[in-house]
Amino acid sequence: IQLEQEMQYALEKNEFELYYQPKVDILSNQIIGIEALLRWHHPRLGLITGADFISAAADSGQLISIGEWVMNAACEQARHWHDNNSDLGGLPIAINIAIPQVYAGLPSTLHRTLHKYDILPSLIQLEITESLLIRDLEMVTSVLREISESGISIAIDDFGTGYSSLSVLKALPIDILKIDQSFIRDLGKTHSDTTIVAAIINMARALAVRVVAEGVETKEQLAILRSLECDEVQGFYICQPLPADALAQQLLQTT
Ligand code: G
Ligand code: G
Ligand code: MN
Ligand code: NA
What we know:
The chain is of the alpha/beta class. The chain has a single domain, classed as EAL domain (TIM Barrel, Alpha-Beta Barrel). It is built from 11 helices and 10 strands. It has helices at 2-12, 50-60, 63-83, 99-103, 106-117, 137-149, 166-171, 181-185, 191-207, 219-227, 244-254, and strands at residues 16-25, 31-42, 46-49, 93-97, 124-129, 153-159, 176-179, 210-213, 232-233, 242-243. It has an 8-stranded mixed β-barrel. Helix 3 runs parallel beside helix 5 (106-117). The radius of gyration is 18 Å and the shape is globular. The structure holds guanosine-5'-monophosphate (2 copies), manganese (II) ion and sodium ion. Manganese (II) ion (MN) binds next to loops. Keywords: Coiled coil, Phosphoprotein. One of its GO terms (molecular function) is catalytic activity. This is Diguanylate cyclase (GGDEF) domain-containing protein. Residues 1-255 form the EAL domain.
């Protein structure tokens, strides 16, 4: 409860920050996108992550305003990287979206924010958690169609943790599947997870969407994903989520 009250002031006091984590093409090793991840510099608790407060935000009805803050901050950052001729300039930024945002006029919020910063829709991706998709599927599908038709791409996040049927996946305007970290964690240790990941990659091929493995932490996991012909990887082994300037610094040092 206290967290919910403090959240009201967090926006005013500018306590939120986006961290950025690259996604890398598994063949070329090039960065091909960046995921924005919300952090809160909490006055008592220190730096806390989305996992610690997104559900409290949903309960207290503040998800929409926080979601709008995230979208604004990500587009402002894209504009900044572009204007400074940063290597990060032309890369799509992925924003995590909570389902209540989809109902709360997401297409117009996106349109307004892209317009404000003069950003092309192709620079924005939305990540939507699979486990939240099943409720109100028709509504979600039609809103996502509208967004997709505007040129923004759509990723299904945490794939494998929900209950999406193949017909649901086929109906949704999906561009990317992100395999949940829980399947990557034991890659190479348990045979079944390798089989599951291979099956998801094959399914992505059948749906003609790109497939990303998240939570890649070891060289072994990367090697297995390469042998399974996964398209993209993301995780601590490649790069931690970092503040925008720290990420730009890090990339200067490693390239
Ligand atoms: O980076 P991290 O551990 O904080 O993410 C934890 C969870 O919070 C993940 O499920 C992630 O998708 C979610 N999350 C991170 N940033 C955002 C955000 O800006 N909006 C929403 N809705 N969820 C986010
Ligand atoms: O649900 P979503 O995929 O948006 O959440 C991503 C979360 O995973 C973020 O909290 C991010 O900080 C975290 N993360 C990113 N890379 C790794 C990794 O290699 N290992 C682990 N355990 N978490 C990671
Ligand atoms: Mn995500
Ligand atoms: Na995820």
